[in-house]
Amino acid sequence: MKGNEQMIKHLNDRLAEELTAINQYFVHAEMCENWNYERLGEAIEKRAIVEMRHAEKLIERILFLEGKPIVSNLNEMTIGDFVPEMHESDRRAEEGAIKGYNESIRLATEIGDNDTKVLLESILREETEHIDWIEAQQDQINQVGIQNYLAQQIRE
Q: Which residues lie below 8 Å from residue 61, measured CB to CB, with a gap of 6+?
């Protein structure tokens, strides 16, 4: 089915965001595991895998719409040097993704592409869950202090 070119461009923009997030989150996960913050590393890695599923769904939809998935575009990544910076850069990435998904949902609604709209809404729900988790981590750091927070991330 030949899709709307503007919608395909939006889907490729969302794909670039997802691919960037995957890379950023995997680096952050590996950094945490290197510091022996295994619980945190595993949680971030799981989020990266969810982002991989998002990328897969976007690629499938682009192909269905007879578009060409562009997997070589990445946005700028922000790798934090310390855990609080990691959470902040990941939060900003999720905020950008949420804004982008909302814009793409508006376009899908305008052009009457309900199947793409439903797909984007399902991904948006998961992105919202991601930012909620990150903000909860930031709240924990503020409430218990960074040392206590990081002590909880070590698995013995």
A: 11, 116, 119
Q: DSSP for 41-64, please give it.
A: HHHHHHHHHHHHHHHHHHHHHHHH
pLDDT digits (tens, 9 = 90+) for 111-124: 999 999 999 999 99
Structure tokens at 41: 């590393």
pTM beyond 0.85, yes or no: yes
- Mark residue 66 as left, alpha or beta (left: phi above 0; alpha: psi -120 to 50; beta: remaining): left
pLDDT digits (tens, 9 = 90+) for 43-53: 999 999 999 99
For the chain, what is the domain count? 1
Domain of residue 75, CATH code: 1.20.1260.10
Q: What's the CA gap between 105 and 81, in Å, rounded?
A: 34
Structural domain boundaries, residue 13: 5-152
DSSP 76: P
Tokens 């508006």, located at residue: 106
Which residues, including other chains, have CB under 8 Å from residue 62's CB and lie 6 or more apart? 3, 8, 11, 12, 15, 68, 69
